[in-house]
Amino acid sequence: MKTVTDVETLERLYGVPGKSSVLKEVDHLHPAYRPFIERSPFMVLATSGPGGLDASPRGDPAGFVVIEDAHTLLLPDRRGNNRMDSLRNILADPRVALLFFVPGVNETLRVNGRASIVIEPSMLERFTFDGKAPRSVLRIAVETVYFQCSRALIRSGLWDPARQVARAEFPSPGSILEALSPENFDGGEYDRELPARVKTTLY
Question: Which residues form the Pyridoxamine 5'-phosphate oxidase N-terminal domain (predicted)?
């Protein structure tokens, strides 16, 4: 199988980037890019560490990632599964990438930078939601910001209601865990308890 093994071959294959693709990348949170963060209720956080790579979904009401200034973002770390994959990675390698989505908008915004894990009480209090503070807040020093064109989301039809898939067509969380478990795991019981558990542990 023929593969690409050097940059020169890659550049011959794809050609040079267009002028707009170069202009779009800046080293700060330009005012034109702020709405992509302020209106986003969902983003993906990518990290790297000794155990490999991780991409973690993060969501909250729009504006949950706060623009502190032109070079700083603040991201509260809400309750999850306590695996702490992203946080473990950041301790070993602070480099992060964030990809912001806004429902109905086909462009996305990518932010690269370096993160630190803040546990200052006043910072945690600042991000209290529904009476509960996060255990930590990621402070992200922005290095590059770039908005992705619409092609990928247009091709995928991500926001097209006609392409939505019924959840019932997929295995339930309990049945997946039961299939993966070498022990006697009761998937049915897990599924019955899951809605209430998610509701009470959302924050």
Answer: 29-149
